[in-house]
């Protein structure tokens, strides 16, 4: 009698993605979704899954961008509609594939509400104040970098100031 061999062995990525989909209710019925809360997909460390899936369509992945690489003449923009909650300082991203939200620290809040797809990084960070104190440009750039790594901001490079 011949022993059947495995025709396909999922990769570590495939196993992790499948576990993530199940944990987020991907296969849940409508009835199960009504009774059970499922976390949104691609949150926190699971954003790496989204990046892997999106890599063939991206010119650069967020995790490869170093904070020191961000230039003052780059133009930050939101890749999808972002709604800002001014009371709770939450940003809601309306991305069709990865809708998510994030509580913003005071610097991130001040920086993100200035991102309009027109102003350069230099213009966005100029004059950022928190509680009346001017915030150093490097702190603002770090806030932009964190927002980029989390998918709230992309950059158009090489734009004249």
Structural commentary:
The chain has 161 residues and is α+β, with helices and mostly antiparallel strands. The protein has helices at 12-23, 30-35, 47-54, 106-112, 121-125, 137-149; strands spanning 75-77, 82-85, 90-93, 100-103, 129-130, 133-134, 154-156. The strands form 3 sheets. It has a 3-stranded antiparallel sheet with strand order 2-3-4, with no helix packed on it. A two-stranded antiparallel ribbon has the order 1-7. Strand 3 and strand 4 form a beta hairpin. 21% of the residues are buried.
What is the overall shape?
Answer: elongated
- Quote the distance from N terminus to C terminus: 74 Å
Return residue spans where pLDDT drops below 50 for at least 5 consecutive residues. none
Helical percent range? Answer: 25-40%
Question: Oligomeric status of the shown chains?
Answer: single chain
Number of helical segments?
6
| Biggest sheet architecture | 3 strands, antiparallel
pLDDT averaged residue by residue: 87
Class from secondary-structure proportions: alpha+beta
**Helix/strand order, N-terminal first:** HHHEEEEHHEEHE
Topology at a glance:
Layout: H1 12-23, H2 30-35, H3 47-54, E1 75-77, E2 82-85, E3 90-93, E4 100-103, H4 106-112, H5 121-125, E5 129-130, E6 133-134, H6 137-149, E7 154-156
Antiparallel strand pairs: 1-7, 2-3, 3-4, 5-6
Keyword list:
14% strand; single chain; two-stranded antiparallel sheet; alpha+beta; 3-stranded antiparallel beta sheet; 6 helices; 7 strands; 161 residues
């Amino acid at each position: 009698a011949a022993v059947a061999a495995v025709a396909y062995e999922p990769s570590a990525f495939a196993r992790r993605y499948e576990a993530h989909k199940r944990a987020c209710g991907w296969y849940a019925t409508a009835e199960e979704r009504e009774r059970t809360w499922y976390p949104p997909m691609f949150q926190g460390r699971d954003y790496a899954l989204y990046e892997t899936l999106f890599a063939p369509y991206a010119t650069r992945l967020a995790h490869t961008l170093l904070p020191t690489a961000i230039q003052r003449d780059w133009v930050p923009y939101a890749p999808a509609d972002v709604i800002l909650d001014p009371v709770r300082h939450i940003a809601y991203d309306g991305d069709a594939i990865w809708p998510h939200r994030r509580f913003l620290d005071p610097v991130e809040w001040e920086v993100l509400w200035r991102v309009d797809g027109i102003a350069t990084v230099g213009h966005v960070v100029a004059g950022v104040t928190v509680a009346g104190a001017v915030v150093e440009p490097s702190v603002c750039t770090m806030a932009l970098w964190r927002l980029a790594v989390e998918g709230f901001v992309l950059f158009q490079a090489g734009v004249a100031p």
